[in-house]
Predict the 3D structure of the following.
Amino acid sequence: MSTVRTNNILDASGGNTATINSMTPTADSLQGFRNRIINGDMRIDQRNAGASVNNSAAANTYGVDRFAMYGAEASKMSAQQSTTAPTGFLNSWLITSSAATTPSAAQPYGMRQVIEGRNISDLGWGTANAKTITISFWVRSSITGTYALSLFNRDAPNRSYVATYTISSANTFEYKTITIAGDTSGTWLTDTGQGIQVWWDLGSGSNFNETAGSWVSALKVRTSGSSNWIGTSGATWYITGAQLEVGSVATPFERRDYGRELALCQRYFQKSYDQATVPGTASTAAGIVVGKVSSNTVPDGEPYNIVVFPVTMRATPTVTIYGYAGGSGKVSNWAGTDLAASSGSALNIGSNTFTVRNNSGGTLTTTQFAVQYQYTASNEL
């Protein structure tokens, strides 16, 4: 076998744009976290296991891990993981308009992922050395036309950039790439807070309109000519292969192994349930056993159990305890019967561990005197 040693690989004109298998090797593109978007191929859905969910009012509603839809009014959109996808992908995220909606000027409708500040700290945004980034994704909709994508920061927010892309053919996956020069102004967090918010607009109100193509000191997410997708009842919109990377060229989608992608998601949301089980539903899989006690009458407050998260979370999460049969705030006996309301609680919660306390003082009704439960932990940005 021959060995080739070289200090540089240049293109024919002498520049630094040579490609290997359609990828330009640079210091940024060769790192282990090229795609700053997590779960960009929509294959992880811990909360819903593929089931459809409706949007809440003026709050993030997660259809798949790390991606949330946001609507000013409740139940105007539904979302779920889909197996309709372009070649090379198993899943996409499908959003469906539930009712024809005409937003008021101040009402936003769209979907987004918020990237943690620690994952964009090398971009240098807010400085003279701000790096250019490229966003790429596959999109499909029943409504053709011009759509908007925007980036904005956490501070107020007071910095945003609107870009546009076109869906030319109905019900057909199309590949889009958008290159954006980094922002040299504003405050872009580089800690565990919100670094960059990436927003795909689906028909926000006129207060959010802006001319595309430049950074502005306001929260803007669309142009006046962008599609009012939310205005058509039953309209569909799919996305997959979402990627945000450093540089001015879109490289092939970074395919991280499932275990690593799941761990990246678990920094923001995790559960004790099997991946195919929706939290809060009856579970045939064994719950976490708190421990045995000396008799079938459970003393209030006994036993305790310490849970160590499989992945260190971004910050102190909100933990919800579920009984074996699905009751929130409950623990269960060994037979799988949920005990009284508020029979389980989480204490001493941190980013690595928490403690479960049995509050039931109930009867276990079995010779195997034990308490069991499930949990979810969330600290989404």
Residues 258-266 form the longest helix (9 residues). The two ends are 50 Å apart (CA to CA).
